[in-house]
Amino acid sequence: YYGYIKFDPCITDFPEKGCHVIVGAGNNELNFHVKLPSDQMKEGSFKVTRM
């Protein structure tokens, strides 16, 4: 995403243990891309006012 800050990839245990996540912030949004252990990709975003 142009103008977004992308954080380093990390590993989380939600929604499943061992999921790889990339988080991006910008344009009053917090976006995330989750790769599940089954190699399925999920995306989501939250509107934010302050960080």
TrEMBL record:
Pfam families xrefs: SNX17_FERM_C (PF18116)
Superkingdom in the source lineage: Eukaryota
InterPro entries: PH-like_dom_sf, SNX17/31_FERM
Start and end residues of each Sorting nexin-17/31 FERM domain: 3-51
The protein's name in its UniProt record: Sorting nexin-17/31 FERM domain-containing protein
